Amino acid sequence: MIEIAPSVLAADPLHVHRDVSRLVDAGARILHLDIMDGHFVPNLSFGPQMVSALRRDFPEMTLDVHLMISNPGSYLQVFADAGADEITLHGEVKGDIPLMLQTIRRLGKKAGLSLKPATQVAEMHPFLPACDLFLIMTVEPGFGGQKLMPELLDKLGELRRAGFEGTLSVDGGIGQDNCRQVRQKGATRLVMGTAAFLSENPRALFEGCAAL
Ligand code: DX5
Ligand code: ZN
Q1: What residue segments make up the domains of the chain, in order of their start?
Q2: How far is 58 from 83, CA to CA, in rounded Å?
Q3: CA distance 7 to 23
Q4: List of the chain residues with pLDDT < 50
Q5: Which of 3, 23, 168, 187 is the 20 to 30 Å CA partner of 181?
Q6: 193 lines ligand 1 (CB under 6 A)
Q7: Which atom number of ligand 1 is nearest to the Cα of residue 174?
Q8: Ligand 1 atom 12: the closest Cα is on which residue?
Q9: CB 134 within 8 A of CB 166
């Protein structure tokens, strides 16, 4: 069963509860939360207060936190305390990546690694045993509403061939027209920002992407 994770970055910031509720009513069970620091990526989004407010109002949802920040190690405890279920950091950051992944697991959360388009999967091989989730970026991270770069989907097969058995998530530019292709390349989770939040019929979108 494919998982679909709407990305709250695409919600109207003054109506997050309303917009998320609409997608929960349409069948969403996971929320993807893009945390940006204006340094690792050229944009700013929201922080742990958004995560804790969503945890409070949507206690049943899985909260999938994607840290696009240069110093994730300083914030793992903060996001765990805010109510994240899964915490993903980028493989490009400086610091002790195995230690950070181990810390996430020690906090009782699922640990994820994400890759910008230019970063090769082979560089991540040593870290795979410490990951529960891998998040392949199919756009340059920082902004919603970009076009998916299909050649990056080959990273999914590379991860499986390297023995990775966890969640394979894809992030960036996914919608009705390409979700089938993304699944066929091996994704087990689809992150959807613009397509989900702007959809006139999100239930049909989710069911259409779930049916292969
Ligand atoms: C981009 C973020 C994505 C983004 C996806 O940096 O990581 O999660 O919100 O949005 P869409 O689906 O609009 O590309
Ligand atoms: Zn994301």
Answers
A1: 3-211
A2: 11
A3: 11
A4: none
A5: 23
A6: yes
A7: 12
A8: 193
A9: yes
Say how far apart CA 115 and CA 181 lie, in whole Å. 20
The angle, 0 to 180 degrees and rounded to 10, between the axes of the packed helices 48-57 and 16-25 is: 50
120 C-alpha to ligand 2 centroid (Å): 18
Rounded CA-CA distance 101/113 in Å is 8
Q: What is the pLDDT of residue 40?
A: 98
DSSP string, 35-53: EEBSSSSS-B---HHHHHH
Q: Where are the beta strands (DSSP E) in 43-152?
A: 62-68, 86-90, 110-115, 133-137
Q: Which residues pair with 169 in a beta bridge?
A: 135, 189
Lay out the sheet containing 110-115: strands in order across: 3-6, 189-192, 167-171, 133-137, 110-115, 86-90, 62-68, 30-36
Q: Is 6 in the pocket of ligand 1 (CB under 6 A)?
A: no
Type of residue at 127: F
Q: Do 69 and 100 form a contact (C-beta atoms < 8 A)?
A: no
Asked if the 3-211 domain carries CATH number 3.20.20.70, the reply is: yes
Q: Which two tokens stand for residue 177?
A: 């027209």
pLDDT at 168: 98
Q: How far apart are CA 83 and CA 56, in angstroms?
A: 9
Our answer to whether residue 34 is catalytic in this structure is yes
- Under a CB-based contact definition with an 8 Å cutoff, are residues 46 and 35 in contact? yes
pTM given for the model: 0.98
The token pair at 43 is: 């944009």
Q: What is the pLDDT of residues 184-205, one digit of tens each?
A: 999 999 999 999 999 999 999 9
Q: Enter the tokens of residue 68.
A: 């696009």
